[in-house]
Write a structure and sequence with these properties.
single chain; 287 residues; alpha/beta; seven-stranded mixed beta sheet; 12 strands; globular
């Protein structure tokens, strides 16, 4: 989610006795704490790409889960360049970590437990994928999506005990996403109301003096997916349940689903027969 009443992009996955987080947008840690997640069991963070609204709380998630008892170094997966991102956060938090160890003692906050281990995911061909986690029956696969010019950008497929969860990351309409979302029990997909954004840019253009914002808004649209397009993908992939996240433009989270559908869908729901849920902070989905 994003906006005044919504935290930045973050999805927590609980499976096989472990917690894995996909993206750590601003506000992620506060919502994880509010949800009372078993954060000491956090084993990995998966970054879809490196825009600030997807990585802004990385330092806080790492530091606060360490303080809450996470006892192992944290694996941080992402596209090539993840090493640079992790190094930057390590530098920014180095004095804080040093101070906390001095204050609470190595026995309470082992230095190694507060560290991050960057793991660069290399996908060599557009229609291939990489198995990045295979542990305790849980398999996580990374695949390419289309969020140019932020390339490469990844989506993630989780498989556990015959259940499948797919998280899109940020992407334009993508045949590759359809491929890797095949038969998913739950697809968590970003969404933008393109018609609303375009109406807003037209109003700004008429008002004058907003050329920069109009140009930027129109360019942003090319890397995201409209609700009708997401539904078409979900239908083709035979997805059972669709959840919208990273909802843009930001709207009050108390709006009921039927109002959001009216605002976001230019056409009917594209023949998709499963439930469509507009996500809010703290939403819990059991697959």
């Amino acid at each position: 989610m994003s906006g005044k009443d919504r935290a930045g992009v973050c999805t927590a996955v609980l499976a096989a006795g472990q917690l894995i987080v996909v993206d750590t947008g601003p506000g992620s840690w506060a919502n994880m704490a509010d949800a009372h997640l078993p954060v000491s069991r956090l084993t990995a963070i998966l970054l879809s790409h490196f825009h600030s609204d997807h990585i802004g709380d990385l330092g806080e998630v790492v530091t606060q889960t360490w303080m809450k008892g996470r006892s192992q170094p944290l694996d941080v997966y992402g596209p090539p360049g993840v090493e640079e991102v992790v190094a930057g956060f390590k530098t920014a938090y180095a004095l804080d970590h040093r101070c906390r160890v001095e204050q609470f003692g190595e026995q309470n906050m082992p230095i190694l437990s507060g560290t991050m281990h960057p793991l660069s995911i290399q996908i060599t061909a557009p229609d291939t994928s990489v198995l990045i986690i295979d542990r305790n029956g849980l398999k996580v696969t990374a695949f390419l999506v289309d969020h140019a010019p932020a390339t490469p950008a990844y989506g993630y497929r989780f498989e556990y005990k015959g259940r499948v969860l797919v998280i899109s990351g940020d992407t334009a309409k993508s045949d590759n996403l359809v491929k890797y979302a095949s038969d998913a029990d739950v697809l968590i997909h970003e969404v933008v109301a393109k018609s609303l954004v375009l109406q807003g840019t037209m109003a700004l253009s008429k008002a004058g003096g907003h050329e920069r914002m109009v140009d930027m808004a129109r360019k942003v649209l090319s890397g995201h997916t409209a609700a009708d397009e997401v539904v078409e993908e979900a239908r083709k992939a035979h997805v059972k349940k669709l959840v919208f996240t990273h909802i843009a433009p930001s709207l009050p989270p108390f709006l009921p689903n039927f109002v959001l559908r009216w605002l976001f869908f230019d056409k009917q729901d594209g023949g998709f027969e499963g439930p469509i849920i507009f996500g809010t902070d703290g939403l819990w989905i059991e697959a």
